[in-house]
Amino acid sequence: MTTALVLIDLMPRIIALPLAPHTGDEVLKRCLELANAFRAQGRPVIQVRVDRPNVAEQPPGSDFAPGLVQHGDVVLVKCSIGAFATTDLDAQLRKLGVETVVLGGLVTTMGVESTARAASDLGYEVEFVADAMSGTAAEEHDFAAAKTFPRFGRVTTTQDYL
């Protein structure tokens, strides 16, 4: 069984938002640790970021955070909230033989949760790294991690993968 790390929207303009319960910088640090651990084990790392649709130019800070993407990572750009609807994420995962997706990134109740719901619908096992994601409000993040995510998969911490 292959497990892949899927990181959502780790872009400077989103990392800089007032997030809780973890700052964007804390989430980025943990996601970098996770990505390095997955790479060291030969497991796939999928980096996904969003482009705003129907705009001539993306806002500043719309690329991946510096140092995040490494050689060998799968890089996808979505034009939707979740990562499956407007990318070939499903095809990429199936090509790699992935059965379990481990999710981190920003924002908990938007890009991460939308991606998780689609992953579950497509038959993937889902794991949520609760301290490697954050929300626009701590209450939203905490509710998702405690109540919503356990219905779709396993809730973990960064330390579980290091």
Percentage of residues in helical conformation: 25-40%
Number of helices: 5
Largest sheet: 6 strands, parallel
DSSP strand tally: 6
Please state the structural category.
alpha/beta
State the low-pLDDT regions, or none: none
Mean pLDDT: 97
- Cα Rg: 14 Å
Q: What gap, in angstroms, lies between the N and C termini?
A: 19 Å
What secondary-structure arrangement, pairings included, does this model have?
Elements: E1 2-8, H1 12-15, H2 24-40, E2 45-50, E3 74-78, H3 89-95, E4 98-106, H4 108-121, E5 125-134, H5 138-148, E6 154-156
Parallel strand pairs: 1-2, 1-4, 2-3, 4-5, 5-6
Give the gist of this structure:
With about 160 residues, the protein is of the alpha/beta class. The protein has helices spanning about 10-15, 25-40, 90-95, 110-120, 140-150; strands at about 1-10, 45-50, 75-80, 100-105, 125-135, 155. Helices cover about 35% and strands about 25% of the residues.
What features would you highlight for this structure?
162 residues; alpha/beta; 6 strands
Task: Explain what this protein looks like in three dimensions.
The chain is of the alpha/beta class. The chain has 5 helices and 6 strands. Strands 3-2-1-4-5-6 form a 6-stranded parallel beta sheet. α4 links the parallel β4 and β5 (125-134). The chain is globular, with a radius of gyration of 14 Å. The two termini are 19 Å apart. 39% of the residues are buried.
